[in-house]
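Protocol step 4 of 6: structure prediction from sequence.
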Amino acid sequence: MKLLSILEKFLLLVICAALLTGSAMRPLTVTEKAEEIVRNVEFDYVGWTLSAFGEKMSESGIAAPQHLSQQSQTQAVEQYFALVYQLDVVEGQIQQIYSNPTITDPKTASADLLKSQNDLQNELNGLAPVVESILQSQVTQVLGENGLTIGGSTIPPVLYRTTPLPKALIISPRDKIYEEANISLLADLPLDKITELEQTIEKNLNVSALVVDIGGVGIYPTMVEQSSDLSWVANTVAHEWTHNFLTLHPLGLNYDKNDQLRTMNETTASIVGDEISAIILSRYYPNWKAQTLPVTGGTMTLASTNTPADTFNFQQEMHTTRVNVDQMLAEGKITQAEQYMEAQRQIFVAHGYMIRRLNQAYFAFYGAYADTPVGAQGADPVGPAVRALREKAGSLANFLEEIARMNSFAQLQKAVQ
């Protein structure tokens, strides 16, 4: 009788609250307004997670590390990444044909290449479960050697799926740089649609918007982009596992509380990813050499095309740009800051860095990855404090366990002082 009475009172309170709030609708947030605009192209995480987890469970019997020698594991992984590289080259050649105005029938002209593309992707799809099993085991082993396993297992277990990743719509105010919204969009969203969405959101909401490609997502299993760069993939697997680990602690639970905590999370994951992947490459793949994709009319430029005589420093120039933009915005010079960023973007492009848009949203997103001394984070003190804690902690386990317990930048400052 007492329980029923309590439930009845609770239900009455809920009904009253609904009636009261119904007469005074709160204004929509920027995120909610943006979600209304992009609703038809939002990524379905629930559907992807259910599918990926089911696939992982069905593949659990593969256990490649238990059935293959270390040499066979190394050969399987290296074969896989060599095939991804071949696929990247073929796709670049197809892109060249389709962008060539003198070719009137690109489908016919690229028929052989399209068949090669399909054959390579099918072969990769067959190898992916084995390679994922091997890399998961290697990352787990190295984490364990660094004191980050219990009874030989990580919590949570290292589990990832190679997949096309959703794109991220980043929104920042125009008058200051911080990530006001991060909305996941469909992985195959074409560039013309991306540009249209950015322009619509900026016009309607008076904000800075940018749709970016991401390398991984820390859901479970974690999402990792298909890449020919073994070092990058190992790094991303460890990086996203770190996000899963932190989600079980105060730092991860407070990821979205403010930009300082977000930077603490991302910089921590970047540090762990860098250290774990370096060990994996030197131990298991000492002969691995990353291959650089050929530049085809600028369409496949992934980094810089600098010559040895070119002294342009991307990280330093980006750092300087961010510091100057922060100063302009602090002085209320929004238009001048935006004009300056566009001028700087053209300088980056001239040096081989194909940045499509450089704006407040760009810095709001990339500025959170502050594992290097200079870069898009500018003069933000959070990254240096995280790196200082890593040096002070000694072991990787001490560092991760200490920072995982934090829920404010003030705690981090106190720890490093």
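Step 5 (inspection) to follow. The beta strands are 160-162, 167-172, 181-185, 208-212, 216-217, 222-224.
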